[in-house]
Amino acid sequence: MQLEGIRALLERIVQRWPRASDVLFVAGASIQVEVDGVLQPVRLRHGRPLSPALTQDMAHCLLRDRPDLCAALEKRGSCDFSWNIPWGIRLRVNVFRQRGRLALVMRRLPEHIPDMAELRLPVVFEDMAREPQGLALITGGTGTGKTHSLAALIQRINHTRAVHVVTLEDPVEFLHEPVEAVVSQRELHTDFDHFATGLRAALRQAPKVIVVGEVRDRESMEVVLQAATTGHLVLATLLRPMSAQPSSGFWGCLNRRRSGSCVCGWPLACGTWCASSCCRAGMGRGGYRFLRCCATGCAFGS
Q1: pLDDT for residue 149
Q2: Of 198-202, 215-219, 236-240, 296-300, which range is least confident?
Q3: Mean of the per-residue pLDDT values for the chain?
Q4: Strand 209-212 to strand 273-278: parallel, antiparallel, or no bridges (unpaired)?
Q5: Are residue 207 and residue 149 in the same domain, yes or no?
Q6: Within a 10 A sphere around the Cβ of 270, how many other Cβ atoms?
Q7: Which residues span the domain enclosing 101?
Q8: Do residues 187 and 221 share a domain?
Q9: pLDDT tens, 252-265?
Q10: Structurally, how many domains does the chain consist of?
């Protein structure tokens, strides 16, 4: 299948299901569209399930001239990237292997950037947007609203502060046009090869705010902490459950950096840093709990 054929197919799907969130292409099944959390089959003229050859052709077509993504697929078994199609629609595409075959999931990315009021975010997010330096973490499990919360936080900074914001994302989901700030959005495998190297490069790009789509490894954690202690405001998400222990993951890294002149891993001169944990279940309509930590102590809220 050629690129034009994939675009034409997606155009028909979007017209038929304008509220579709995801489109699945899995060999052995028909094309599936997710609408309001429920899969619906897409009936093609020939009526046959997708063949492994067809899903492989689709994947190879989308990954053509992208050796970095092909290498990620070969090494990890999956890769992510954003893709623009006509009518202003953007998709996050995940290509992955299942039972030795290639499959694809395409998620429609939102055109509208939510604001803090829409998401009913706690007031601590207002404080994060005003911080001149330090570290703000948005944590939680998959699907708890980390990406939307981070986008709302960037949007507030964009509308209230004349600063340079550099983002490192996988992939770029929300597009932030310049308002008061200038937002430079960089995508993994397109604009940089690894979060740690992208972070180090960002330090030389005159940012006041650095945004990390997700902190994934210890090397990236260390660079995040370095940036937070050298006069930058760093915003990041971290995949972790609400009940995770302080000795694991990022908190363990902070503890290992503690010294006589540091609290929670960096100098007191760094000022306030915050962490917000998001959880949908059992948290009320707003869906958020948060933890705010300062150099002098901690305070919990919900």
Answers
A1: 92
A2: 296-300
A3: 81
A4: unpaired
A5: yes
A6: 21
A7: 3-108
A8: yes
A9: 555 555 443 333 33
A10: 2
